[in-house]
Amino acid sequence: MTLSLRFRAAIVSLALLGVFLGIWHLATRGGGATANMSPEYARLMGLTATQGKSAMPGPLDVGAKLWEHLKRPFYDNGPNDKGLGIQLAYSIGRVGLGYLIAVIVAIPLGFMIGMSPLISKALDPFIQVLKPISPLAWMPLALYTIKDSSISAIFVIFICSVWPMLLNTAFGVAGVRKEWINVARTLEVGTVRRAFTVILPAAAPTILTGMRISIGIAWLVIVAAEMLVGGTGIGYFVWNEWNNLSITNVIIAILLIGLVGMLLDQVLARFTRMVTFPE
Amino acid sequence: MTDKFISIEGIARRYPGAGGGTTTVFEDFWLSMARGEFGCVIGHSGCGKTTVLNILAGLDEPSEGTVIVDGQGIEGTSLDRAVIFQSHALLPWRTVLGNVAYAVSSKWRKWDRARVKAHAQRFIDLVGLTGSEHKHPSELSGGMKQRVGIARALSITPKIMLMDEPFSALDALTRGTLQDEVRRICLETGQTTFMITHDVDEAIFLADKIFLMTNGPGAVLAEIVENPLPKERGRIDLHRHPYYYALRNHIVDFLVSRSKSFAAEVTDHDPRHVPTVRPGLPDLMIASGTELHHQTSWPGLSRPSTSH
Ligand SMILES: Nc1ncnc2c1ncn2[C@@H]1O[C@H](COP(=O)(O)OP(=O)(O)O)[C@@H](O)[C@H]1O
Ligand SMILES: [Mg+2]
Predict the structure, then answer these.
(1) In Å, how far is A109's CA from the nearest CA of chain B?
(2) What pLDDT is stored for residue B4 in this prediction?
(3) A90-102 residue pLDDT tens
(4) Considering its fold, how many domains does chain B have in total?
(5) Interface touch B136/A179, C-beta < 8 Å
(6) Is the pTM of this model over 0.80?
(7) Rounded to an integer, what distance in angstroms lies between the CA atom of residue B227 and that of residue B225?
(8) ipTM of this complex prediction, to 2 decimal places
């Protein structure tokens, strides 16, 4: 029996998922001893205390709730009760916008840094200092100057995704093989055409690797940023559901954050493959 | 001299050396070639052959002196001077056709796609790559890649082709085929070609003139060897020609011993008037810039004298 590696891996993955769900189910099934407590406190604690049910939802609870969400992802019952689809759309929109601005800034700037040793040396101290700053540290400053929480979140996304793209673009551009540049030179190709026909394709795999790192970081940061600024978005949703003590919804949100992050990464991975050339 | 199509006039190339001084790769270097000639430079590794070629291409600049091509001092690179790189330097994200078309569209910027494609195709056919137009360089063998490099260089119909050890990375069989190909094309088109090689037989087969360079640093052009073999020569039976061994021995002798000792032994070397020799012929010496000196002696196939 020689099943393909992929198929066997899929079977193991499914088995692992089954085991995980099983343990989760058993661990949260309830039936524990009902604590001996004052009736008032018991009322406060709800089912957990009165029926011995675990506060942690089981996989079936989560599944049922998820199904509910999936049936109506876009409902809007006011500021504190919106469908998951809407919340995700807000987050993706902010990430998309901040990321796009970062692309527009980082790639031309990275080109300049990569092509000019002078600019590279001149900007290096600034980049070295700015790069390690946690993007969230910018938040108060952004809120103070921009005075708009949503735009501040977009700014934070911009600032966190700009560095990997900037550095990778500069690195890719500076590392273009001399002989390819010489080919363009002997063909009297002008600077602009050379940038687009030789340097860009040669550096594209490195640039896209930077873009892929950036989208991952941006998606990590948006959840934290939205927890801070509040209002809308999947990060706010997580925080809000925590305040509502709805662990089920928190788990669902965590699951969705993971899935969307994976999708974003896959999209960039596909683009990277498209521009990668074999040598 | 009759027609100096290429004239390298007293160039020098210096690099900052260790300890604040400068290293002179070569200085007061003169070399000229006529239109339609095939010139080969032979010399040991590190003597500055690539530097000379890069200066001729405009990819490097001399520290002193000028290079004149077709009556004009060169300034930077030019579409008139095509380079075939040792490492073929194809753009890996472009196909064979894409690589050649890139050169064609760089030269004729107003041409439409169809015209560029048709022109590129002609040169792909010329180097025998018909059918591989849509392959990427990674799908080609070393010899095929170098063919694309040749097609790319020829496609812009340059005044001069510059080749830096173009076949040294290839196996002997492929190298032979490509040498045949290059010779055929150069003869057909009257292409002026300047090539670096370290393969003596390659130089004998391809070149009209072989330029012998001494070892660096401070390398000089020691002498110009005129190829006495007839224009219609075959690579396979090259060695049957009566002058072949005289010519070959002369070059090998130079590489083995004289390239090292030249500076010490020849004190009156005039870099501007480098002696020209024709090994194998009745000792017939052409001193640069003067008439032929027929000598009465008849050394036949013996090693010719080259000293004044
Ligand atoms: N960028 C450089 N800096 C210092 N020395 C160099 C540089 N490039 C080449 N050289 C020196 O110039 C000499 C000639 O090099 P090159 O023209 O490549 O030789 P060849 O092609 O004959 O093997 C070598 O000795 C090399 O060390
Ligand atoms: Mg070399």
Answers:
(1) 24
(2) 87
(3) 999 999 999 999 9
(4) 1
(5) no
(6) yes
(7) 6
(8) 0.84
